[in-house]
Design a protein that fits this description.
The complex is a heterodimer of chains A (about 290) and B (about 325). Chain A is mainly α. Helices cover about 70% and strands about 0% of the residues of chain A. Chain A has 2 domains: about 25-55, no CATH class; about 60-285, MetI-like (MetI-like fold, Orthogonal Bundle). With about 325 residues, chain B is mostly helical. Chain B is about 70% helix and about 0% strand. The chains are: A mainly alpha (about 290), B mainly alpha (about 325).
C-alpha cells in the first residue's frame, strides 16, 4: 500500500467534517424535538430548551399514552399499515409475476394499459366522485384499496423477478409444477429482499399518508395518525384541540404536541435502519430498465 | 430429452400452438393478472369518465350523462369552466406551482449528486455507513412531521433557529409567515428531506464505474478533485441527465402532501399550488366542474411535459422511463 500524502489525509478529514455537519443537520431537529417533549413547561415557555431536556418531565408522554383517542388512532394506523402492506404486496406480485413471461399473449396490451396510468391521472375530483359513486367515502376501505398497487413498485418487483434465472422456472415447468406453485415455491423464497423493500415502501407510504384521509374521510373516528397530528399542529388554540380531537386532559402544552410528533415518528425510525441493505438494492433496481 | 424439446417449443413458438392448448397451460397467469387489471380499470380508468363534468354543469344526484352541457345564458358553452377558471387565483397557483418546482430543481437537484460524490471519498467504511443511515432518515418522515419539525425550528418565538438568532441580538426571522422566507423554508426542508435518499441512485452509478479508470487517472497524476471531475462525474453523467429530464417533465405536477402540510394562510400568495387550489375549490367548496377543469388542464399539460421529457431522453441516447 502506498502511504497517503498529507494532502490526501487532509482532504479525507475535510470530507469527514463535512459529513459530520450534514449528519448533525439531519438529526438535530429530531433531538431538539425530543428534548422539548421531555422538558418542563416553565423552560419551554421561556424558550430555553435546546438539545437537552430541562427539568425532566414525562407528563406529555403519560398524557398521550393515557388518552384513549390518541391510542386508538395509533393502533388504527398500525392496523391499516399492516393490512395495506399485505394487500399491496399481494397485488404487486400478482401483477409483476405473469409479466415476466416473454411469450404471454396480450402482454403488450397489458403493458400499455399499465403505462398509460403512469402518465395520465384522471385528477383529484374525478377520483373523489368515483369513491363517492362506489360508496367508499367514509369507509376504511378507501384508505386501503385505491392505493394498493403502485406501478413503480411493480416495476421494481418485475426487475427483480427478471434477475432470477429462467432455467429455474423452466425446470419446474418440466417437472409439471403449476404457475401458482412456481411462483410460491420458486420465486417467493428467492425474492425476500424485494419483498422486504416494497413492504417498507408501502408501509411507510401508508403510515405517512394523510391526503386520502383528508379527501375521503370526514368521520374523526377513522382518522389515521398523521391527519390527527396535522389537526393538532394546526390548532394553535389548545381548547380547540381538546374539544375537536378529544384530548381529555386540560392544558395541552407545547410539549404535548412534541410528544405526539415523537410517537408517530418513532415506529418508522426503529424499523428503517435494519432494512437499509434491502431498500438500497430496491431503489437501484427500479432505475434499471428491464 | 424429447419432452424437454417439446416444452421449450411451446414457449418459443407460441403462435403455432392452438389457443385451447395455450390457455390450458397459461390460464393461471391470466387469473393472477385479473385482480390487478380489474383494479386498474376501476380505480385508474373508470374515474376518467368524470372528466366530462369539466364540460358540463354539475348537478347533485344526477347521472353523469344526464347532466346538461355547460352553458352560459342558455347557450351551450362547453369550455365555460375553463374560461371561468382562468382567473387571477388560477394564474397565481400555476405560477407558484412552476416556481416552487423550478426552485426545487435548481437547488434540490444538485444536492444528492454532491452528497454522493463526497460520500464516495470518505475513508472509513463504518463512518460512511452511519452517515448514510442518518441521511436517509428524513425521507421516512411524513410531511406533517416535517411541518411539525419546521415549527420547532423556525417558529418566530419558540423556534430553535430563531432562539439562536435572538441570542446573538438580532431580530427573529419570519421563516414561516412571510412569503419570501417561507419559500426558502419550503425549498430548504425539501432538500433536507430528499438529498440523502436521492444519493442512493448516484452511489450505485458511481459503484458501477470501472476502477481501472481511476488507476489510469492516478498514473497520469490526477488528484482527488480532478478524478472526481474527469472520471466520476462523466461516469454518472447519463444517470444525471435522465433524472434531470424526468424532473423537468414533472414541473407542472407536484406533491399535494408536501405543499399542503407546509402552507399556511399567511403565505398563500406564494404557497397555493394547483393541487391545493383544486382541493380547496373542489372538495371543500364543491365547485366540481371548475376544479375538474383545472385538474384536467394540469393532467394534460403534465402529460405533454412527460412525453416531451421521455422523447428528449431517448433522443439523447438515454433510456426513457418506459
Amino acid at each position: 500500500m502506498r502511504v497517503k500524502s498529507f494532502k490526501t489525509v487532509l482532504g479525507d478529514w475535510l470530507f469527514v467534517i463535512f459529513c459530520v455537519i450534514v449528519g448533525l443537520m439531519c438529526i438535530l431537529p429530531m433531538i431538539n424535538l425530543a428534548a422539548k417533549s421531555l422538558s418542563a413547561s416553565e423552560y419551554l415557555v421561556r424558550h430555553e430548551v435546546y438539545l437537552l431536556p430541562k427539568g425532566i418531565n414525562v407528563n406529555a408522554y403519560s398524557t398521550v399514552l393515557g388518552d384513549a383517542k390518541y391510542i386508538k388512532s395509533f393502533f388504527w394506523t398500525v392496523f391499516l399499515t399492516v393490512v395495506c402492506t399485505f394487500v399491496s404486496l399481494t397485488m404487486t406480485s400478482l401483477c409483476a409475476y405473469p409479466l415476466i413471461y416473454d411469450k404471454l399473449k396480450g402482454k403488450n396490451v397489458i403493458n400499455i394499459l399499465i403505462t398509460i396510468t403512469m402518465f395520465f391521472n384522471a385528477g383529484l375530483i374525478p377520483n373523489y366522485l368515483l369513491m363517492q359513486s362506489l360508496g367508499l367515502l367514509n369507509t376504511p376501505l378507501v384508505l386501503i384499496i385505491p392505493s394498493c398497487l403502485s406501478i413503480y413498485n411493480m416495476i421494481i418487483m418485475r426487475s427483480f423477478f427478471y434477475g432470477i434465472p429462467d432455467s429455474l422456472r423452466e425446470s419446474a415447468e418440466i417437472d409439471g409444477a403449476s404457475h401458482f406453485k412456481i411462483f410460491l415455491s420458486v420465486y417467493l423464497p428467492l425474492s425476500k429482499p424485494v419483498f422486504a423493500t416494497l413492504a417498507l415502501f408501502y408501509a411507510v407510504g401508508r403510515w405517512n399518508g394523510y391526503t386520502d384521509a383528508l379527501m375521503y374521510i370526514t368521520d374523526r373516528e377513522m382518522y389515521p395518525l398523521q391527519l390527527l397530528l396535522y389537526n393538532i399542529l394546526n390548532n394553535i388554540n389548545s381548547v380547540e384541540v381538546q374539544t375537536q380531537e378529544g384530548f381529555s386532559t386540560p392544558g395541552l402544552t407545547e410539549s404535548l404536541k412534541d410528544a405526539v410528533v415523537m410517537f408517530s415518528t418513532i415506529p418508522i425510525l426503529l424499523v428503517y435502519p435494519w432494512l437499509q441493505k434491502y431498500f438500497i438494492a430496491g431503489t437501484t433496481l427500479g432505475a434499471v430498465k428491464e | 430429452m424429447k419432452k424437454v424439446a417439446k416444452n421449450a417449443g411451446l414457449e418459443k413458438t407460441g403462435k403455432k400452438v392452438k389457443f385451447s392448448v395455450y390457455m390450458k397451460r397459461y390460464w393461471q397467469l391470466y387469473l393472477m393478472l385479473a385482480l390487478p387489471i380489474i383494479y386498474l380499470l376501476i380505480f385508474k380508468y373508470a374515474p376518467m369518465r368524470y372528466i366530462l363534468i369539466a364540460f358540463k354543469d354539475y348537478k347533485l344526484n344526477t347521472k353523469l350523462l344526464d347532466m346538461p352541457w355547460a352553458s352560459t345564458a342558455g347557450q351551450v358553452d362547453i369550455f365555460k369552466y375553463f374560461k371561468k377558471a382562468m382567473n387571477v387565483d388560477f394564474y397565481n397557483a400555476l405560477r407558484n406551482n412552476v416556481v416552487l418546482n423550478l426552485l426545487d430543481l435548481f437547488f434540490g437537484f444538485p444536492a444528492p449528486i454532491i452528497f454522493a460524490l463526497i460520500l464516495n471519498e470518505l475513508p472509513f467504511k463504518f463512518f460512511k455507513k452511519t452517515v448514510q443511515t442518518i441521511a436517509y432518515m428524513p425521507h421516512f418522515l411524513s410531511w406533517v412531521i416535517i411541518y411539525g419539525l419546521s415549527l420547532q425550528l423556525f417558529a418566530p418565538t419558540g423556534g430553535l433557529v430563531n432562539q439562536l438568532i435572538m441570542l446573538t441580538g438580532h431580530e427573529a426571522v419570519p421563516f414561516l409567515n412571510e412569503s419570501k422566507h417561507w419559500i426558502v423554508t419550503y425549498v430548504g426542508m425539501g432538500i433536507w428531506q430528499s438529498f440523502g435518499w436521492g444519493s442512493i441512485i448516484y452511489l450505485a452509478a458511481i459503484a458501477g464505474i470501472n476502477p481501472e479508470l481511476y488507476e489510469a487517472a492516478s498514473v497520469d497524476g490526477a488528484g482527488r478533485f480532478s478524478k472526481m471531475w474527469h472520471v466520476t462525474l462523466p461516469g454518472i453523467k447519463s444517470t444525471i441527465v435522465v433524472l434531470l429530464i424526468m424532473n423537468l417533465g414533472g414541473i407542472i405536477g407536484g406533491s399535494f402532501d408536501r405543499v399542503f402540510a407546509m402552507q399556511n394562510n399567511l403565505v398563500l400568495d406564494v404557497a397555493e399550488t394547483i393541487a391545493t387550489f383544486v382541493y380547496k375549490n373542489g372538495v371543500k367548496q364543491l365547485r366540481f366542474s371548475l376544479s375538474t377543469a383545472v385538474g384536467l388542464f394540469q393532467s394534460v399539460v403534465g402529460l405533454f411535459f412527460l412525453l416531451g421529457a421521455n422523447t428528449l431522453s431517448r433522443k439523447l441516447g438515454e433510456r426513457g422511463i418506459w
